[in-house]
Backbone:
């Protein structure tokens, strides 16, 4: 029986390319697609795929938060993150949140196929560029940027840096506005950021949000 895949990316053309790549091997069937975190979670609940291949930069609910919800519903779920972000920070965050692997979109096409095979076999898979960065940082005993933030704090930080108000963040994360405000205070304290502008600067520095004009 072929491996059943849920493909999540907000660009239809990109999804079509990945679908053709995976199904060309005759090992995988893309049984559902989604363009947002909310649609991805609904498709996950409906189809119970063998593996989810998902971008983390999605409109609304991010891939990390969507994955958290999937794993809360089905802890055995296998999620492979396939992202444009090429910094080790994102790979580490994805693994911390429960991903089985992280592959950058700069990787060769066959890398995605190898990654899905590895995840299905129960192995953790990192594309070479991310694995190399993490190894160098580990050898140098360096802390990853923003490593002091918990997964939930990191998600709140990312949304704040995008300029979203507390009320909208509360809706996206299914939290009360008071709880989000508490997370905001914790994030500012851990990052030693006194103002929202300082938080945005930190996010820009680490590639979490794009600068004006991008």
Residues:
């Amino acid at each position: 029986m072929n491996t059943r895949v849920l493909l999540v990316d907000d660009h239809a053309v990109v999804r079509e390319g990945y679908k053709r790549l995976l199904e060309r091997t005759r090992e995988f069937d893309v049984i559902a697609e989604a363009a947002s975190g909310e649609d991805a979670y609904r498709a996950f609940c409906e189809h119970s795929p063998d593996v989810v291949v998902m971008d983390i930069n999605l409109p609304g609910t991010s891939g990390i938060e969507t994955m958290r919800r999937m794993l809360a519903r089905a802890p055995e779920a296998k999620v492979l993150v396939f992202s444009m972000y090429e910094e080790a920070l994102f790979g580490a965050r994805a693994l911390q949140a429960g991903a089985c692997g992280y592959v950058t979109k700069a990787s060769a096409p066959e890398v995605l196929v190898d990654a899905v095979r590895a995840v299905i076999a129960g192995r953790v898979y990192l594309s070479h560029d991310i694995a190399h960065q993490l190894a160098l940082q580990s050898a140098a005993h360096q802390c990853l940027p923003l490593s002091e933030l918990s997964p939930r704090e990191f998600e709140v930080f990312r949304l704040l840096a995008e300029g979203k108000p507390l009320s909208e963040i509360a809706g996206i994360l299914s939290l009360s506005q008071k709880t989000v405000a508490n997370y905001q205070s914790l994030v500012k304290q851990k990052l030693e950021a006194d103002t929202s502008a300082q938080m945005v600067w930190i996010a820009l520095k680490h590639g979490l949000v794009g600068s004006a004009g991008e």
The domain at 151-205 is CATH 1.10.10.10 (Arc Repressor Mutant, subunit A). The longest strand covers residues 28-34.
